[in-house]
Amino acid sequence: MAMDGADTDQSLHGSLFGGGRGPSPTVELQQTKEQLTKQESRVRHLTAVLAEAEQDLAKLTQLNELLKEEVRRQQRSIEREAHVHNSEYLKNVIFKFITLSNGDERSRLVPVLNTILKLSPDETQKLQNVAKGSDTASRGWSGLLWNS
Question: What percent helix, strand, coil does the chain show, rounded to 5?
């Protein structure tokens, strides 16, 4: 069966412009644009959700560190309470630390005080500096009490 010129034109037109077999290119283009707009909106929403989640994570991480330090402080406090019953020994160690003038002898008492008082690393370092005499602002009994 041979096609005449009109059938060929109709077939070509149908092939180029869809010929009723699907949406026209304009409609298809519009649908694609709508899908793109929806996906861009979804990306913006998910980006905002991600940013909020990252902020929450940062806050929770900071809170976690703060709570860990508080737990360590509470543990030291509990351990310190266990040694309070031995206050005579503590009094003697503190008195000896204060009255000794030799830095080496005072330095040997720092671990003892650390054990009894459950000092933080920063407090231990400050006490070690006082014992060695390198912390000039903290020399003497008043420096131990009121210097922080």
Answer: 85, 0, 15
